[in-house]
Structure formats: C-alpha cells, structure tokens
Amino acid sequence: MAEPRGPTDEEEAPLLNNNDEAPSLSAERDGFFASFIAATKEPLSLLSKILLVVCLILLLLTSVFIGLFAGAEHKLKNREGLPLPTVTTTQYATQTTTQTRTTTYTAVPTQSPYKPPCSTTQCVTLAASILSSLDTTVDPCDDFYQFTNGGWLKENPLPAAKASFSQFQKLAQNNVQIIKEIITRDPTPETSPADAASLKKLKDLYQSCMNEATLEEIGHEPLLNMTRELRKAIRGQVWNKANDEEPLKPLGEKVGKVGLTAATAYLHSRGISGLFGMYIDGDAAVDPDFMTLQFTQDGLGLPAKEYYEESSVVTAYTRAVAAVLEALDETPDTPEEARDKFWPPIPWPPWGGGGDNPRENRTERAVRLAESVADFEIKLAKAHLDLDILYQDPFFTYNPYSFDNFTSHLPEFDFPAYIAAFTPRNFPEKIIVSYPPYMKSISRLISETNAEVLEAYFVARTALSLAGYLGQTTKVWKANRSLDELLRGLKKGAVEDRDDWCLARVESALGFAAGRFFVQETFGGQSQIKAAKVIDDIITTFKSSLSKLEWMDKESAQAASEKATAIRVKVGYPFYPNTTSDASIVSYYRPVKPDPTRFLDNMVSTSKAEVFRMWLTLGRMRNKDAWEMFPSTVNAYFNPPANEIVFPAGILRPPFFSQDWPTYLSYASFGGVAAHELTHAFDSAGRMYNQRGKLEEWWTNSTSQHFDERKNCIAEQYSKYTVDDGKGGVVHVNGNLTSGENIGDAGLIYAYHAWKAQETEGLMSGTEYTLPGLQGYTREQLFFIAYGRIWGRNMKTAAAVQQVRTDPHSPARYRVDGTLSNIPEFAKAFNCPKKTPMNPAKRCSLWS
C-alpha cells in the first residue's frame, strides 16, 4: 500500500475518484473535515491560490446574481396578497372603492425544478423586456392590457411629433434604421452591378429627401409645375415641356368631358385620389384569378365622412384649402389703381351670384373657392357608402357591369380615353362596381358644379396629397401640417425626425429593392422554416377543431377544412419581384430614376410607375408570386380572392418572433398574428370566398345562420367599447366595421391549442425552456402575456377618434381585453373569478 504523499506543487491527483467501492457517508464526512483541517495548516501552492481567487470571484458573482434575481422577484410578487414565487399558490388582490377581491390561482412551474432557467445574454435580455413591459400593480383579471403593457407604455411615451407609437411602429422604426445602414454604406467589391444600381436608386431617393436646403430653395416650384399641367388638362389643353409657357385658356362655366377625363386620369396616374377610385383585382364571382377592372368611391380630403358633420373640422379644412389655393394661384391680382375705375364700387348684384368679381383679389378668391370645395366634398361624402358595409359585405359590393352599361351611368367622362391613358392596348369588357348609387350621385354632383370649383377641387387634392414632400417653410406644407395637427392631435411645431421620415418614404417608394437587402441582413438561419412551422401547426389545429364546433355542420366543416388546406402560405419575401435575384429587382424598378435634388418629382415618378404596373395586370391571370407588402413591412395580410396569407420578414423579429425563443412565446406573439390571418379566411367577409377564392355561399344555410348569430354577438360586444373624443364625451367603436378583424383576433385560440399540442415535444427537446425572473408565471400565463404585449400603443386622443372612424381594426386595448375575455383558457390560466372583466358571465364564443 502506498504511503501518503507529502505536499507538492504539481497537480497529479485524479479529478474524480475511480475506486469501485464508494466510501460510507460518515467516512466521507470525516475524511473531508480531516482534509480541510490539514489543508488549513499547509502553505498554498500557486495553483491553489489561483483556484481560490477564482472561487471567490465566482462566489461573489453568484451572490450578486442571487441578489438581483431576488430583488426582481420581490418587486414583481411581493405586494398585497401576492407571495413570492417559491409558493405555488399566487394571489392578486385589488382594492377598489367598493370592495376588495382576492383572486387565487395555482402556479404550475414552467418546467421541472431541476432544470435551471436559461442564463444566456439573449435570455436575460428577453426576460428583462417582458418584465419591464408589465404593470404588476394591476390585476390581470381586471385589465389585462394594462397589466401586460403598463410598463412599456410608461417607458415609451408618445413622441410630440407622432400621433401614435406602438410595438409595431417601434419595430418598423428599427427596420428602417437597418435599411439606412444598408443604403448609406459603400458597395463592396462583391456587390454585383445590378445590386449596386439598386442601392444607388435607394441612396439617391434618400438624399433627395434629406436635402432640405434644396427643398426650401425651390419652394412650391415642383408642385406649381404639376398644378399648371393639371389646369391645362382641365381646360382641354395638351401639355408638354415645349409649350409650358403657353397661357391658360379661359375656363368655361362647365368642365367638358375631355377636360374632366384628362384631369381625373392625371390625378389617378400619380396615385392621388379624386372623385372615384379604379383598381385591378380578380373577378371574385367568376374567376378570382382573372384580373378585372373595379370601380369604387374615393376623393375625400378629410379622413372619413363623419368629419364633414363637424363644423370646426370643416372650418379648419376650408382654411387649409384656401391657403393652398392662394399659394398656387398664378393669376395676378387686379392692380389697386385699376380697381377704382370699376363701377359699381361694390360687388354687383349685392345678393351675389353675379359671377367673377373684378374687385376680388387672390386671397378673397381662394377663400371663396375653398368654401365651394368644402361644400362639394360634403355632398360627395354623403354619397359614400358606409365603411362597415363596404368592408364587410363582398356580395353587396360585387356589382358587375358591361363596360358600355357602366359608361352610360357616367356620361360626363370619356372612359375609353381614361383607360387608354393607362393601358392603351387592353380594353376591358367588364367592370365591377362596389356601390352603383355612387355613380349616379357623382354624375349629378359634377353636372351641378361649375368648372372653377372643380378645378379648385383637383388642385386642392393634388396639393394636400403632396404637401409633405415640400420644404417645411412653404405655405402649402404649413397649411397641410396645421390640418394634420387638428385631425391627429399633433403638437404644434413638433416635427418628426427627418431621418426616420425619409427612410419610411424610401421604403414606401422602393420597398422591394430595400427589402432584398433587408432580408439578406436580418432573415437568416432557420427563421423561415420555424415561422412556417408555427403557421402549419395552427392550420392543422384549426382543421382538427372544425368538427368540434357545435354551430358548424359536417358539410360546412369539410368545406372549411378544404379551404384551410388550399390556403397559400408566403413567409419572408416575394418571388415577384424576385427578391432573391438582383436582376429581377433592377428590372422591376427600371422606370424609376431618382434625382438627388428633386424629392417631390421622385416620389411622384415612383407612384406613377406603381400605378402603370398595376394597370398592366388588367385582363391577365393573377401573378401568384406577387405580394401586396414589402419584405421589411411590420404587418401581414390575407387576400380573399387569392386565398393566401402573407407574412413579411419585417414582422418576423422581436417582439413578434425569434427563431431562438421558447415556443410558448413564438406561438403567442407571431402565432397570434398567424392565427389572425388564417381566421380572416373565415371571418364575416372572408368566409364568403371558397377554397378557390371564388365569391359564393359555400356553407350551408344553417351554418351561416349560426355564424351570423355569433358574429352579431361580437359586433355588439365591441360596439360597447369607447374612446375619449377629447371634448368631454366618447366615440363608440363600430362593431360592424371591426367585425372581421375582431373575429380574426379571436383566432388566437388556435395558436394556443397549436402550442399546447406540441408542448410535450417541446419539453423533451428543450424548446420550452424557462426565462430568468419569470419562473413565478406558468407557461400558459406567459403565452397570454406574450400576446398581450405586442399590442402596446400610446395614442393621441384625436388620432384614436380617427382610427375608430376609419380603421376596421379595433383600438389596441380592445384587441387584447376584448379578445381574451372571450377565451375560457385565459380565465383558467389566471384563475379569474366569474363576472370579472376578463371572465364575464356572457362570452361571445365563436371558435371554441
């Protein structure tokens, strides 16, 4: 038996005991103490000293982490009625003026106790962002929106120059900064000539926007060029650069067919609305893939028809129109010395109606015309169909006309000439009208309105649409800004950061070019595959649940399953234009040649290119590779006639998605978005399109009746929600207008069940891991927290009113509380008592 060794500076002893027989506990303990005492009496080797220092440092770091962790947990949980997370029973206590309620639920650990939470930098950052977004002073059973977003709302106050700021907008802001970094760096030797050309277009457009000195120097000149061209069109003059100095012909009493057609086509070709709208989409009732001409209402200067009923808003709008008409009026004033020669010295006849007044100066003329334009638009607004019908009833808004029959209802226009301005070699035989009475209304309105007022209307539409592209010292920019401040509640004089604003304009104008580089920069690894899996799992869950819906019969369930199977899913980026091909992008934007000194001209040219590109699809079959959104867009959509759901790479980023997140977060945040778009295929409007995108009644009458009962329940629920009108009253949400979006939000239940279906697998594979500081919440609770927090949004009162009047989406608060209060799984997760706001006695249940 070897003798014990003496002390040595060399580390030769084994790190692990290799003896076959394990020592007894007492022997191990006695040996340990003996060794410890002996060690304290021996001098330390160099290695021992190093190890001792390392141990002390690790001990210190561990103590700091434990202290921070305990502090965070204490801050989260140690309030009245809410014990620390080591206790499995958690209580929320809410004190009101009338009662005290204690809500108790059992918190199930997010994973087995022996698995520590993830401690990587990414996990710590993610956990911190979730914790900081919460307001734990609020009972989640009372106001879940505030509970999940209170911290974020406080940390992200509304910028003075913005009408709203949300999680969506914050991510969009981050995305455009990535685009900025891409377009402002120099091309590398590896950059292809085609990509270099695309980058130059992006950079030139960006520089033209940022070149404020030039914008101020040229003032109204670019807009005056356009309005001069527009006035000639109205007066029947052919405009070109060679005859730009040719004086305007006198304006008659009425605008002729040629002039009215030319002026309308001029506006529409530049993406400016006026009188009516024309667009190309599938013939939903015959062949959804055959691209057909569509006619709809348009042309209001205010955001919605309701604004024309408010005298204060109409006054402000009239003032803005007067300012732009005066700024763009190139008719010289009558000299003061000449005015005295006119007789009588007062307007004649004194009761008015005597035509042009020779004593009227430019300002007076602008005010008079602005009042007439406002009156014209009031009548136009009255002719508009309410948006809840326009958006939610595709059968009502599908009215096919032969082209000859259509033109007979609007004899004031030369529609063959109008269409030839966009697509001279492609003449339609059919046009689909969304609201036939609108044709008769505008025909009568045009016939009753004199030429001077119609010209002023066209000029005002052009000026107010393009005002933002001018220098900020111009009268037109100021007039439009003043109106915007009223309508959106913006702080006077507070202007959005120019850099952010210009980058957003670049993205809107050249989004597929920017998107090619954005995808290369941000959308790598397994992002596309993992996002697609979330979507596929939700679709599978949806299909399997249809047979369990008590209101849907077997025949309709089978048809719905077939439609869900047929839905085309697009994730990340399009293939038309092909963002994986440098040549495809260059070809797509070939007509656009930005001038670094001409911002307004650049934006108009990109709009023209997009409009003419749309018209090229007329009479052709749908390009199934085409997208309606850019790759960097923070949004998603469902297209009923195409039967497709689309998810750009822009939204597949935190706080919506990350390929490295635990699945309960991914299925809640991005899964909530995916389920929303899927469920749109079966909402109040989407359900009327079958699996081929064709408009027809493909559910049985019984199923349709039961669906409508549940849809009406949801509409009534949301119609009770209100926003402050800023005048001491409230404006109610239009539950009919928001019906489709609310039903889409209700699809969250499918994201929840899709997550639960793979939970066991996730636990086994490690994708259900715990985040530090969040162990006190169950995975079910974290799922709903992750969903709730994506809707965080601060908003000006005026902007909230505008949203309620114009947007088919409900306000953010109700997209959380309204949705989750209808989901029993939410109330169960937080153990909300019956009849609390988030666990109401009556639910509007559709998908569960």
From TrEMBL:
Signal peptide: none
Transmembrane annotation, as ranges: 50-70
Cofactor(s) needed for function: Zn(2+)
Protein name, entry field: Endothelin-converting enzyme 1
Peptidase M13 C-terminal domain: residues covered: 635-846
InterPro entries per record: MetalloPept_cat_dom_sf, Peptidase_M13, Peptidase_M13_C, Peptidase_M13_dom_2, Peptidase_M13_N
Limits of the Peptidase M13 N-terminal domain: 140-574
GO cellular component: plasma membrane
GO molecular function, one term: metalloendopeptidase activity
Recorded family membership: Belongs to the peptidase M13 family.
GO biological process: protein processing
Keywords: Hydrolase, Membrane, Metal-binding, Metalloprotease, Protease, Transmembrane, Transmembrane helix, Zinc
Pfam families (alphabetical): Peptidase_M13, Peptidase_M13_N
Region (Disordered) location: 1-21
Organism: Tulasnella calospora MUT 4182
